[in-house]
């Protein structure tokens, strides 16, 4: 049968124009739409359902590790935001400010939260008095506003959805353990749910979060060879604690400042799913994160017994926990195939008169188009579950192979430029630790340091200045 791409013909090829391909998929797979305010997008039901899948998985992991959900106000008094100087300096250019309430000018400007550190600090300072009150392990799901000049759906918006965790602890050791624990949950979520392998490590001083002592990151590699910062976990030490007077009476009867962390991932993860797994026909969703894991396409659905059988199969699969639905629209089978393909639904199950006669159905894998004939018997559910697991693993291994093939070690700046321009991906290089060399790399190549490899000792010299290397660093062009 000829492949029907009625809907998909309008998608720009990835290799022709990756940026246009990306926005085509976002729109035509009905993940989002543009609002009348630049940078503020509408999350359509399918796009929001994807975010809900991520949210549910992570929320469960957060609660398993003792965290509680809270909600902080959207507005921050300007004076409160200015209490932590480094933090303010980092966010000031991106802040949206409310100056009027109704018809009246406000006595003090209110900032729409770009992040909520200061709100949590103010609250913690009020409610924590003793070591018995610690730790406080809070998280909130919300949106934030950062007035971006250049925007792209899910990747960089003036408003985006995210979670932000904020915790305080009695000791530096406990806070650092929390920082790394949450980084691990992020890496696990990407691997197990999204089928995306991450590069993890520590941000350089230049790239770390405003106000943090240490920032750790998970970095994904897109199909076009660019990196995407996909989640960060920060150790603050007690800098915010001193600025906001967050003290507690310890067991030794002495007043001490708390140690603090924060960590967050956002709807950027939707962008990562699209750009890591998608193809020229649209989305390709890993089964564990797909809102619909299997779509049943009844062939000649007006023939007697076809819809009844489709509904029977759907009910049986749902009872086994498979997210299945049926396309009973009056569109042609070819259009329905194309629609399921565009939406990245991992499995398509076709059942028609001849299938019923033969006691079988055909399932098609979105990831590679492979078709498998399965008997319509009591083993169908088991077979479908096995295929879904295989797809999840296959997608992870494909993404892992691509990432590993795009990590290149270099020892000269000439090789650095050559790899970046000809192959892309991550370029690993010894680095002296001086920001001057980091800036030169960015100025001459548009690549930035993504993270320090914390698993390896530096060897050799920095190719930029010739000084002894202190770190091995992943560099890449990035979103």
Report on this structure.
- With 479 residues, the protein is α+β, with helices and mostly antiparallel strands.
- Helices cover 35% and strands 27% of the residues.
- The protein has 14 helices and 23 strands.
- The chain has helices at 18-28, 45-64, 78-81, 85-91, 117-127, 172-192, 239-243, 268-277, 306-319, 333-342, 353-358, 380-405, 413-422, 435-445; strands at 32-34, 41-43, 68-69, 75-77, 96-101, 104-112, 136-145, 159-169, 199-202, 214-221, 227-237, 247-249, 255-257, 259-266, 294-298, 324-326, 347-351, 360-365, 371-375, 407-409, 426-431, 448-452, 471-476.
- The strands form six sheets. The chain has a seven-stranded mixed beta sheet with strand order 3-7-8-14-11-10-9, sandwiched between helices. A five-stranded mixed beta sheet has the order 16-15-17-18-19, sandwiched between helices. It has a four-stranded mixed beta sheet with strand order 20-21-23-22.
- A hairpin with a 5-residue loop joins strand 12 (247-249) and strand 13.
- It is globular, with a radius of gyration of 25 Å.
- The two termini are 40 Å apart.
